[in-house]
Amino acid sequence: MSGKSALARTGFFRLWAAESISMAGSQVSMFAIPLVAVLVLDAGAWEMGLLGAAGSLAILLFGLSAGVYADRYERRKLLVLANLGRAAVILVVPVLYWADMLSITALLVVAFLTGGLGLLFDSAMSAYLPRLVGKNELERSNSWMQGTESVGEVAGPGFAGLVVQLVSAPVALLVDSISYLVSCINLAGLPKAEPQRSPDAAPESHGAAVLAGLKMLWSNKVLRPLALAAAHFNLFTAMFFALFTLYAVKVLDFSPFLLGAVTMTGGVAGLAGSSSAVRLSARFGLGPTLLACYSVPGIAALLIPWAQSFSKPVAALFVGLSTFVWSFCVVILLILGMSLRQQLVEDAYLGRVSATFRFVSWGVDPIGALIGGALGASSFGLRNTMVLAALGIVFSALWPWFSPVRTARSATPAEDQDMREADTADPAPQP
Fold this sequence. Notes:
Elements: H1 3-10, H2 12-40, H3 45-72, H4 75-98, H5 104-133, H6 138-166, H7 169-188, H8 206-219, H9 223-251, H10 256-284, H11 286-301, H12 303-306, H13 312-344, H14 347-362, H15 365-377, H16 382-394, H17 398-401, H18 417-424
Helix pairs in contact: 2-6, 2-7, 3-5, 3-8, 3-9, 3-14, 3-15, 4-5, 4-7, 5-14, 6-7, 6-10, 6-13, 8-14, 9-14, 9-15, 9-16, 10-11, 10-13, 11-13, 11-16, 15-16
């Protein structure tokens, strides 16, 4: 039986369709909200830093709790509730715009709430997927899911850029709100996934559940360095992208449509990365593939601040090429990292460990965004800040380099002795 046929029998492609619709709309929001700030509210570097921080602040406040909820409550229901919440919150922006009441403060609140709901959705999804498809199909299904995100990256920015160019950035957000509602219809037809609990397990408090997830992640010799590498990578990434839209519009003089067009290259690269991740890992080994994908995006990112030295067509080429390389590598990191966590962590802890991983790796985003905004608004300037951030990204590969990950050959514990030893070196924490 082909891999695709095996996935089809699980109902996976209904989930994939729901994600495809939702992610296309989400990409519109990711593109349009910063443009609302720059074009409608005339935001500067500091305001853009605050906006970038707001979307990630929910991870610091609720990141660990989201995993507990994913391990305690029915996961399909959490997916639906999170998408309904995002549909309502995103709708606030065009409503306030039409009422002439839109402000930076309102955008910050919207970014914060959508970040929190997105965190709940991701935590539930990471725990739901292994129950739906089984562990033997995780790499393949994660490749499809990252391909879904890439489809959104292809369709979203170009469409959003066209809508913003013809109408306005707030109106483009209506598309995202509607997409979440359509996604909920597909999700409602999927099987339920109640958390698996041991019948003799004693009830644990919320705090004890959070602590168990932290202990399991930190005690694992494979997942710990990957979490630290992701935190390092994301700190400097947040610095960089807090200023990217402002830099592209104000310095490179890109129109919304041109910015959307060059950003679409990231979606194409994501599709390529999602279809290549398993093959590259098998060909070069898990460790070398991860090391390359942590460092290469920083090198590619240097093309963007360099672009202002050239004409607009050349600058657009540089931004598109950088975005392509960046997205190709990041999608591979996401696929291999998610597959590894789902292989190494038992179901009862999976929601918590995944949320803890996000807490560690994404919780630094507000810090990076604020640093980027502050440096960009100072005499240090936009360009120098982006160069500094790109160089910082390159060195994120040092964390897995000095760990068992460097020599790992496979993302499947049963096929790789190093992975098995790292996974069982420390016992799972007991509640």
